[in-house]
Each structure stands twice: as structure tokens, then as C-alpha cells.
């Protein structure tokens, strides 16, 4: 059985901390795990499709739409104030710091670096956010010439000028702000989406529930273990929280609503092209913010759902 945290191993320091943390969790659970590397460009879906995953981070949208039922273990809770002590995260629209664009509407019609449609933070959450602009039956952005299937690819494309704007997982950016500040010093954030349930740690469907329960308990107790303290601090995590499959179903609903409205992130002929003036911002318009500084609060108001404890 294996453990892996590729999704948030965004630097050597973060990768080492995840390995240390998950191996300690396995030790406390009395479960023998091997920490495997599965770095890009290896497709991350190939990792999730293994039948021996016992403690692996998985994007919430693929989890919710999988034809098989993965065993939920727990979800990370980032320690910055904007996460509110909850297992949630956001997507940030980023541009170069020297970009002349001061609002998201000013980027419409330009090239957007985004991830694959199976991604929540890199595709579906930003698509949902753009529906606040009244977008239907189209897209507001041009695609990049080359695909950008990972957050690092998105960041590279914006820094190199191959895209005028990109969308990236907020927790990825917070880890980079801590560990690799120089890499993103030339970027700033224009907008932040509503909150989403953060990617959970899962086990493959065939993993025995008794093993999953032991790992789940060790994760939920990790913040009380002095041997986990350094790794948690390195990863900007307060703790792990219990989550339920229903917490992730809204991601499916968001995607279906966007599909029904005919909304895409990019298209060869975006609707913003040919507009005499940019579309107006939503009423909760965010302010431009340097990307090198952690955001103490989300820059846009999350869209609550009455039955959703994570919103």
C-alpha cells in the first residue's frame, strides 16, 4: 500500500514534510505504507487509479465523479486566517506584477492558463466564478498554445508571458509564498473565487475499511502529536478534519450548472473579443493584491450554500 501527496508537494521542503507527516501517520496507525513518488509529467489520474492507494491526496472533483467509491480519510485545514479553520480553499486569478490590467474584466479576451476540465481549482471553480459576470454560451478567454495541466505549468506560462492570466489553487500559492517566494514575486492576484472543499486524503475502494479507519484516526489526531508539529508547520496546516462524500457533491453541481449554461474557460473566439468595453465586475469585485504576500482574507465573498458547512 502507498502514500502520496503530489498535489501539494510544491517544493522540496513541502515534499519532504508530506513524506515525514504521512509516514508518521502510518506509524501511529500501525499500517505499513510506502511513500511513492509520482511527479509530473506523469498523469496524476494514473496515481489515483492504482488499487493500492492507502493515503493519497485526490482532487475533490475527480473524487466526486469517480465511477468507484474511494474511502475518505480526512482533509487538510490550512492555518491562514482566510481558511477560517475549515478544510476549504480557493482559486486565485493571477497575472504578472507588471501587467497593466488592474481588474479581472480587463483580462477578458486574453490568454488564460488553466488546467484540465477534471480539475476543480484549475478549471471548474474559476468557471463557476466567471458565471458571476453573467457569462452564458461561451468563454471569456483564449487558450494558451500549449496545455498547462499542473499549477506549476500555469505559473510558468504567466511568468513567461505565454498567458496574460492564470488560475491556481490558493493553498499551492500559500506554500510557494512560504517556501519559494522568489518564484512568485513577479506575480499578483486579481481575484479569488468562492471557497471549495479542499482535496482530501483517500484510500482506494479495495483497501480494507479497518485499515482506512486506523489511518483516518491517526490523521485526525496528528495535530496532537509532537512528532508531527514541524511537518504541519512547514505545510501551513493547523490539523486534518473529518469530511463526508456529500461535502464534495456541490463540485459536481457547479460543473453541471456551468455545462448547462454553455460556459467554458477558453475558446478560439471568446465572447469578450469584439466588446466595445469590458464586462463589469461582479458586485463583490476583489482588489488587486501582490502575490508575494499571504492573503489574510479571501478577496471575494464566498458563495454560501445553506446546507454546506464548508461554505
TrEMBL record:
Specify the protein name: Phosphate/phosphite/phosphonate ABC transporter substrate-binding protein
Which residue intervals are annotated with compositional bias (Low complexity) in the record? 275-300
**Pfam families per the UniProt record, alphabetical:** Phosphonate-bd (PF12974)
Compositional bias segments (type: Pro residues): 301-311
Source species? Cupriavidus cauae
| Ranges for region Disordered | 271-311
Q: Which PANTHER family match?
A: PHOSPHONATES-BINDING PERIPLASMIC PROTEIN
